[in-house]
From TrEMBL, chains A, B, C, D, E, F:
It comes from Lentilactobacillus senioris DSM 24302 = JCM 17472. GO terms for molecular function: exonuclease activity. Gene3D superfamilies: Hypothetical protein af1432, Nucleic acid-binding proteins. GO terms for biological process: rRNA 3'-end processing. InterPro entries: HD/PDEase_dom (IPR003607), HD_domain (IPR006674), NA-bd_OB-fold (IPR012340), YhaM_exoribonuc/phosphodiest (IPR050798). Signal peptide: none annotated. It comes from the Bacteria. Residues 160-281 form the HD domain. This is HD domain protein.
Amino acid sequence: MTKLIQELTNNETFDLFALLKDVKVRTTKTGKQFLDLVFADRSGEIGGKFWDASAQDIENFQAGKVVFLKGKKETYMGNFQIKISAMRLATEEEPHDALSYVQRAPLSKEQLEEQITQSVFEIEDATYNRIVRALLQKYGNKFYIYPAAKSNHHDFEGGLAYHTVSMLALAHDVVRYYDGIDAPLLYAGTILHDLGKVVELSGPISTSYTLAGNLIGHVSIMDAEIVEAAEHLGLHQDDEQVLKLRHMILSHHGELEYGAPERPELLEAEILHNIDVLDAGIMMIQKALDHTEPGDFSDRIFGLDNRRFYKPNK
Amino acid sequence: MTKLIQELTNNETFDLFALLKDVKVRTTKTGKQFLDLVFADRSGEIGGKFWDASAQDIENFQAGKVVFLKGKKETYMGNFQIKISAMRLATEEEPHDALSYVQRAPLSKEQLEEQITQSVFEIEDATYNRIVRALLQKYGNKFYIYPAAKSNHHDFEGGLAYHTVSMLALAHDVVRYYDGIDAPLLYAGTILHDLGKVVELSGPISTSYTLAGNLIGHVSIMDAEIVEAAEHLGLHQDDEQVLKLRHMILSHHGELEYGAPERPELLEAEILHNIDVLDAGIMMIQKALDHTEPGDFSDRIFGLDNRRFYKPNK
Amino acid sequence: MTKLIQELTNNETFDLFALLKDVKVRTTKTGKQFLDLVFADRSGEIGGKFWDASAQDIENFQAGKVVFLKGKKETYMGNFQIKISAMRLATEEEPHDALSYVQRAPLSKEQLEEQITQSVFEIEDATYNRIVRALLQKYGNKFYIYPAAKSNHHDFEGGLAYHTVSMLALAHDVVRYYDGIDAPLLYAGTILHDLGKVVELSGPISTSYTLAGNLIGHVSIMDAEIVEAAEHLGLHQDDEQVLKLRHMILSHHGELEYGAPERPELLEAEILHNIDVLDAGIMMIQKALDHTEPGDFSDRIFGLDNRRFYKPNK
Amino acid sequence: MTKLIQELTNNETFDLFALLKDVKVRTTKTGKQFLDLVFADRSGEIGGKFWDASAQDIENFQAGKVVFLKGKKETYMGNFQIKISAMRLATEEEPHDALSYVQRAPLSKEQLEEQITQSVFEIEDATYNRIVRALLQKYGNKFYIYPAAKSNHHDFEGGLAYHTVSMLALAHDVVRYYDGIDAPLLYAGTILHDLGKVVELSGPISTSYTLAGNLIGHVSIMDAEIVEAAEHLGLHQDDEQVLKLRHMILSHHGELEYGAPERPELLEAEILHNIDVLDAGIMMIQKALDHTEPGDFSDRIFGLDNRRFYKPNK
Amino acid sequence: MTKLIQELTNNETFDLFALLKDVKVRTTKTGKQFLDLVFADRSGEIGGKFWDASAQDIENFQAGKVVFLKGKKETYMGNFQIKISAMRLATEEEPHDALSYVQRAPLSKEQLEEQITQSVFEIEDATYNRIVRALLQKYGNKFYIYPAAKSNHHDFEGGLAYHTVSMLALAHDVVRYYDGIDAPLLYAGTILHDLGKVVELSGPISTSYTLAGNLIGHVSIMDAEIVEAAEHLGLHQDDEQVLKLRHMILSHHGELEYGAPERPELLEAEILHNIDVLDAGIMMIQKALDHTEPGDFSDRIFGLDNRRFYKPNK
Amino acid sequence: MTKLIQELTNNETFDLFALLKDVKVRTTKTGKQFLDLVFADRSGEIGGKFWDASAQDIENFQAGKVVFLKGKKETYMGNFQIKISAMRLATEEEPHDALSYVQRAPLSKEQLEEQITQSVFEIEDATYNRIVRALLQKYGNKFYIYPAAKSNHHDFEGGLAYHTVSMLALAHDVVRYYDGIDAPLLYAGTILHDLGKVVELSGPISTSYTLAGNLIGHVSIMDAEIVEAAEHLGLHQDDEQVLKLRHMILSHHGELEYGAPERPELLEAEILHNIDVLDAGIMMIQKALDHTEPGDFSDRIFGLDNRRFYKPNK
């Protein structure tokens, strides 16, 4: 029976299905080609080398493919790796859907949808409500499976919606504690703030930046989408509600040097920026501490100015 | 009967008691001295000039004193001001307590104390709990009446405790939503993070920086207080709990250039920094928008990089 | 016969028509209101004070109005000013069109249009050509009369189109000298790069920022306009031509800290940014040196990092 | 018959002459020394390893030498390289002049000289004209063969003069379009702005920094040269023309942090800086895109803040 | 008998000679011109106003002139000032030499010369010694009377040489304590580092920047002077000693953003930079504290990043 | 007889005792473990590889241990290394004290103590004197053997005290040359400024940061120690002397971005910062130049903004 990667013990011989998460073609000193691989399933990841790769092998074994693998788990220079005995592509009859091998958000797609839907109900402003619905309708399918980033934070299936749902919880608390906040604007801005990532990124498997992601970026992508949606709904481009919603998206990175075309100049925009920083920071630190021993410092976290975080002994 | 400043109508003649919030001695072109005054009570503030001030007047009418004032409210260059008919110091029999003329937090001292006390109960770690109790006992009286700043945010009586209570509410939410947070450390750090301001600042009336405030700053003041408290409790200076609590205070400004001797390197320290930014930002923006007409931008807010905020029409 | 402001000699008594370019209501020490005015016509500007202004005067004499003025030119503290004898609003029968008193570009509207049209002909790419035509059709009227800025550079009627025409000349030279440049993309990007200013700014008279200008900015305004135009033309949003043209606009400020959501990542975008800097810089320096005596340094130029420029003796 | 590097096909066996552009002595795991080489001729570059290098080989095969090479072109880890069968130094009778193997400017030395000479004619100011002539006479030989940089932009034989000629073309256009520019000053400054590089750099082959280049830099080198030249011509050091010309050189890097002792404070200095940035930027991007496939991004360009540039599909 | 400014008591009527250190022509509200003056002698400074100034008065009473003054010392808005009864220019028979009214260094010109001369003796390297002697011979007269700055530090007669002498004392200590320092290079660099200020500044009275100061700056001025001096002494421009001495001057501001074309890359250059910072800092702080009451903070010091310094009570 | 590392000649076979300064466990391509070692004694350092390391070897040969070594000095890729014939731990009877193999300050512990003691005598202020004595008594043992840094400057046994003694010499000179310096404050601040490093660092052998070092830092560590010492001496926390001494420590890094919670606001604090920079800079440059050939540039120095320094030919 096939195993999960996390279940393997050292020196165990096994069969399993796994996703080829990363594939690099390399050449040995003696000129032979081999594949330097990262295998993944929902339980974890492990590396391995496929020696003497033929042209056909290189053609077959591309990142994003699912393989059936026979091998042995062993130690090499302090790390675990797979010594491969045999490897072939999974067939149509076997569990070959790449998405089912990717790590995903702690909440199911249904749970995420329910929470987003609940917040949409609370957007008691016709303009914001209609724009949000229109864009969720257009991009909803991708919204619930895309990651929130290529690496960094929420870089797993459903990460984008999960990040959004976490921020909505914080947004509700802030609305409860402080006076004078336009809750519909805050919720609408929160739901849309990163939605442009469904155009910026290629998807949840072997995530990369699209050309639109590189040349335009998710901030401007979503800004233009709101304008289009507003036009389809018959709203004038100088409508103050539309301008405010656009401003939420345009300013949510907070600082010009982080790619925000505008700095926050609405109370709700400042709040959106701060809860984004708070949620993303916690996720990055949790992820780094998961790979850290008590009493040690984590690796440096790129998205937090290369700081290391301490994992206490108790 | 005496009035409140906010109740006066234009061209109304009145009697009232007020605090001299700010006093500047100036000289006219013709060489005569006068006082440029700001009067305040809990309802608001208004300016006025006291002409032909004698040496005795200058001696008497100092900032922080309460006066009985007869005058007329009028307009000068677009602003309201008081035309003073007569002014004298309030007597012992009259309402002469400066503190009763200062704006204060929306919650009473008792409400603030109750909420802080509740959070202290939840600090389920003996080390943090004892240190927090010791320092609240030492500085509690001041803690509940001091402002959180000279100007900027929470610059009113009780502002320090009010800021702390607001942050504790957010801290509880974060603990509820995310795994792996050391709640006692987060609550203890939140309660102590700005407590050093009771040494840094002179008090709630005509607030200024003390010499310790100027030369040491509230961050290092509180850091040393924690060390002293820990010593009195018989804790070793290398105790990991003590080091973590000190780190919370030392890093809560987030960036070295904002006067943090350390950048956050604990999950809880990063959270503390972010909820501090969030609460202070909201308070500064609300205060600025209170003085802004719908459809206008506020004055620039120094504590938010001189940004102006827009007050929407609806 | 009426005179132009520039023609007046010191102590000359005159009649003239002028635009009220700037109006400030002030109050004297003794409490009387007066108007602190800046008069302008196409020949230049001069200040003056209108004493004892009645409520009706304040109502009448607003910025943007044209007045008939009797007075005398005199010197006050080293500067020329107008001593006003009489002032009234210009009537419908008199030259009362504010626009005719504003400084304007050295080229006529017709000359500007001709040069822009010529460059549009040279955009030998159907996608770029159609988008540019669509947007010029939508905003052409404003494009030829708007300034390129509120102050700084090209802050005169037609300044926006004049700045664009100057840059097109430089763009043609660059295309001639260097290989591998996509001329249609460069010309299209040049024509559209600042076109969003017709939404960002209020117009050529007493120019101010609109709400869209403040909350969105001309970069994102034009980016969304291109997307809409492309949609109307049936182009897909992932069309590489559309993405490249959007990138030209999004990156033309060059640096994130100058409000560019993207840094230039196309050869043509880098060129566009550089010729924008070159043309704007020359205009700002020429304007500053116009008000500088030979052998002196100009005032500091805000748009050039507060540098002063030297006007040589020869 | 010998081949050019660019003409070789994969697996072709060949004879050719090449320059040793870069030579690194390395040791194998088993302790034997070999040479890691880069071969170059005017058509391009290719790497190769010379195994089992004797002390004599190491002595002979130094960077800057020309060799006669027998070998085979093959692929190694995705890159082409030379498998060397035999290698010896070129003899006096063979084409052994290193300079003839270096890439050079698209214009010949004569064409460059002609264009520079033409611009010198147009310097219709005796002071500038005489200083420029004096310095071209002193450094002319090197000026026409030196590169403009060690790497980055115009890093080929004649690159310095080619960069200057390109900038002169742009300078002429600017003079034609804008009023009030001192053309002689602009042309003189353009010709001299980087001339100090003939002292800063070692020459066109295996270019490195000289001690003067490291300790003084080409900006200050040329500044002092102008002073000396002016003195020889009998000009006073406070002569305004001399000061202005020095200022052109001292400020042409634009920003203090890029090593400009002065920021531009002359109209002509600002123009010189901007056309320098424009020409250098285009050259760097063209060079990077030459090594990029359509649809890909280039490597990061150090001289352009590590940006990558996109090479469109069409 | 005439008095010194510092000797006057409040309300004292007096005669004295003083330098017009600063003169501003102003106009009263009623249109009359008056002079706003700063009087100075070696004991101190005091302000005063000369009412109803005629055209002849304005012509006569220019900054840098010495006047005979009758008046009364009085208080105005908390500051002392002179009420002028009569004022005329000092005659040739009276003490009319402006320089004798300027504050000067604590050491006499002879003392300064002696100490500089002593250090020159210790420059036991022919190259450095000859260059230093040549430049002191050329500029010695100015060197001993110029200030080291327009304002900031050592802004008094002889300040330039005094600053140099103080730094030489520190330089000698450093040579005594640490190994491997090239003392002749350090002393030569110290003597020459600011000597370019005799060209950059106009002189000790009413100091301003010259055109050379504005366009070239004292760093590049002295760099070129060293090259010229070396050439006159027959030294080659690539002589390592000359390059090192130039590097000392070019790098003494330490950071590119402070106008240093080179960052220090010689041990002696790093030392020179640091003792320059140390000496200038102490002088600026001492000057600021001289005008500060014990227990107060000084005004902000521009040259020290606008920091204020505390003057202790004991 | 055993040798010192520095005495070995190439290809010499030898016996010696050495400290294992750095130990890395690595694995060969074929999966065997070996130790990559750095050996050190007071004369210098050299690398070597211990092949086929058993689990026991890895257990025994840890950083900080002293070994007896038989081997041969040889060259590998241009560097010297040890080819190990035999290696075992030194016994109790052999010279096995790690500290005796570490490089140490040029002055003996006794010399350092004498100089510190002398300066303590000169602290003629009871408050400063008592605090300094108390803290030297508490930490004196470590103070005289700790390094001043993990790497960078004074990274040798006794480096902390040696750095302090060097700075005291400079401090005395400054006191001698300038008026108005509080010498006791300057000396006390100098002695204590880096004393917190005895808590921040682990010690002179294989120096690393402690948890307190990472989370608190030596600046805040010493600040709190002063407060405790003052309390034990019965001094009030608002005592101006105590505040000033704390300020010296808190501000000695000079800039917030270098981890100073306060910028210097006392004359003595500015001096302390500057002599710290001066002494540390000289030490870093001397160390770098010791490993540089005349005519070459050193490696980049991290603590000096990655500058390289030139080692002159004479």
